[in-house]
Amino acid sequence: MPGFEADALTGAAQQREPASVLSRTPRLIRASLEGLAVLVSPIVAVFGLRITLMSPPDLNDPAMHTTFVINPSDVFARYSAVLAPTDRLREGARVGFLIPARVSYLLFGAVPGFIVFRYVLALIALVPVYLLLRRLYGRIAGAIAVIVVLSCPVIILAWGTDFPDSAAVSYLIGGLACLAMPSLRHRFGWVLGSAVLFTLALWALAASAPLIIVTLVVYARIDWVRERKTLVRDAALMGGAFVAVTGLLAVGSGLLIGPLDYIQTTIASLLYLAQPSQVHLNHSANPLWAPYITYLLVPPAVVGLWFVAFAKPLRTVPTPQLLVGMACLTQLLVFGILQLAGGVQDLEVHYFSSLLWGAVCITLAIVIVELGRPIYTHRVLRWVLPGLPLAVPLIFEIHPRVPQFGWVPWGILLAALVVILGIYAVWLGQRAPTMRTMALIGVSLTAIIGGLLGLTVTPTQHARLRGTVVDTFPAYAGTLGGNDTVEIDLYSVTTQLPAFVGPPSYSGERLVTWWSDAEIGLLREPIGMFHAFFNSIPSDLGVLSTPGHQYLEQTKPAQVLLMSFNGAQFPASLGQLTQFQPVVVRIGVIRSGSLALHLWLIDLKVYER
Residue 20 — φ and ψ, nearest 5°? Predict the structure, then answer.
């Protein structure tokens, strides 16, 4: 493979005479320091870039997975009979995320377990992508890849929730990096690693499936032309790894979650969500939402930069760079087709579109190195190159504010400017490598990175539009230099709810929640622990409306959990339940930091068995 540091790409070092222990020591020290730097990089990013550990809740879905991390047995005991017919237990089948998250919870507790698992997910992404760029170009390029991933708002926000994209993005980054690794000697191991990570991504979030499929198709196509003799072996290895990992996850699911069979649940949920009624409920009938979602311009802009950086026949592009670039392109195309023609909400909801950023981050890291080639080849100035993708988020986190703009005109103009700056950098690279030329390339790269960050973090909020479903607006601007104290406190409070409520007295003892719409901003996570709106009385606290009465008469719950951050309406709410023979069985307040969640657990004797 061609590259900038020959000893990083060839076996030259292995062809030398065996070195003595003394002469090997400096190399061992350097390797140890290098490995340590990668291992501590997520910690450095937390304090240096001030990346947030937890994200503000904009949907109750993440907490619907938290409940399976904390206490899955109670969920199945209470709700299997009422939720299974509508496949609302599908969150318990996302074992690629749930099993490692539950292990981390059992070992370290709720908040520490969350943070430890995110550290592991960060390493799953960083170690392979660092090694890929290091083998292609050298250590400095590996550092650039680490910086790109750790400063990406989309990745940071995904890591900050219990929605399974938090794990899937890391698995997809690591899987693609392993698959593209330029190592013939250890090819068996890297292909095996990619298969394991892709399988985990699939069973973490089924939306990963089309991305994995097109990536493997691209890999097979390239292999058919360039390394045909290994194609059958790689396919057999991947198939065997898929079966083995899927089987191990079934055992883990049975031991840690509940059901052994998560595959049929996943398939049934996909079929349920593919029904016309569900597509109409979840998928926007027209793309009016798209011009507001400016961060979706980032993947095509990065793909455009890749074609600018490798402006030559594809057959001459080295295999790893070709695989990454084509995977990024085809992943974007398949998600676009599924969104526009397939009835899938994979672009309009950031919990799904975030999956694209695995390939986007690796592609961007390669592009930065390729466009900065004249700087990279300079013995001294090469150390400036990692500072460019680092300087932009450092400056941004001092004042993380970007004005809101959509596609027209500023979003499209900024994306076009990013690509034009890439063309300019290539043109500069073809000239004599003077200090002025390298300075202009550095400025261009900084502007490119800044433009992509601006496209990512600009607010996306908009009014309800005709023909669109209710949207979520990711707080990407708050991931760098933000303050997640409230989010951490809220997660701590939320994860204590199962212990407060206690296990059900009998299978099918259904619990519903009662709360006020005025507090929905902070209550999204707590109500998610009990499957949110499906198990919520449709009335504000204190006044049981006619729909609320009808809901209780239809669902016949054995328990009601009153939830509020002040508890003022609890006595009035109890009075409204008189006809259902309410008995208060537990009163409490769960506190963490500035938050205090007031709770009353009430038995409805009329519906108790």
Answer: -75, 165
Alpha carbon distance 68, 557 (integer Å): 21
Query: How far is Cα of residue 24 from the mean position of the Cα atoms in its chain?
Result: 40
Question: By the 8 A CB rule, do 565 and 519 touch?
Answer: yes
| Cα maximum dimension of the chain | 89
Last residue of a domain, one of 317, 340, 371: 371
Q: Burial level of 203, CB count in 10 A (0-12/13-18/19+)?
A: buried
Establish if 541 belongs to a structural domain. yes
Residue whose structure tokens are 């790109």:
148
365 plus 489 within the same structural domain: no
Question: Token digits for 106?
Answer: 């059992």
Residue 558 sits in a domain whose CATH number is 3.40.190
Other C-beta atoms lying within 10 Å of the C-beta of residue 273: 18
147 & 15 share domain: yes
Q: What one-letter code names the amino acid at 109?
A: G
| Domain co-membership, 365 together with 496 | no
Terminal Cα distance for the chain, rounded: 70
Residue 271 maps to a domain: yes
pTM reported for the whole predicted model: 0.93
pLDDT at 25: 57
- Could you tell me if 109 and 235 lie in one domain? yes
Dist. CA 511–CA 489, nearest whole Å? 24
For residue 8, name the pLDDT band (cuts at 50, 70, 90). Answer: very low
Looking at the fold, whether 367 and 496 belong to one and the same domain comes out as no
Residues 490 and 366 in one domain: no
- What's the angle, vertex CA 102, arms to CA 101 and CA 108, rounded to 5? 90
Mean pLDDT along residues 539-558: 94
Domain membership of residue 437 (yes or no) is no
* Residue 259: Cβ-neighbour burial (10 angstroms; 0-12, 13-18, 19+): middle
In a domain, 149, yes or no: yes
Pairing relation of β-strands 559-564 and 511-514? Answer: parallel
**Spatial strand order in the sheet of 559-564:** 511-514, 559-564, 595-604, 582-592
Banded pLDDT at 24 (limits 50, 70, 90): low
**Per residue in 68-124, pLDDT tens?**
999 999 999 999 888 776 677 889 999 999 999 999 999 999 999 999 999 999 999
Which pLDDT tens digit goes with each residue over 283-336? Answer: 888 888 899 999 999 999 999 999 999 998 999 999 999 999 999 999 999 999
Per-residue buried b or exposed e for 57-82, using 16+ beta carbons within 10 Å of the residue's own CB:
bbbbbbbbbbbbbbbbebbbbbbeeb
Is-contact 187 230, C-beta < 8 A?
yes
Please give the C-alpha separations between residue 138 and each of 322, 382, 479, in angstroms, as whole numbers: 18, 11, 29
Which is nearest to 606 in space by CA: 572, 562, 556?
556
- The count of domains in the chain is 2
C-beta of residue 208 within 8 angstroms of C-beta of residue 159: no
Could you tell me if 375 and 438 are in contact, meaning their C-beta atoms sit under 8 angstroms apart?
yes
My answer on whether 348 and 495 are in the same domain is no
Domain span including residue 126: 6-48+89-281+296-371
User: How far, in Å, are 115, 338, 495 from residue 252 at the CA level?
Assistant: 21, 32, 22
Give the end of a domain, one of 371, 386, 408. Answer: 371
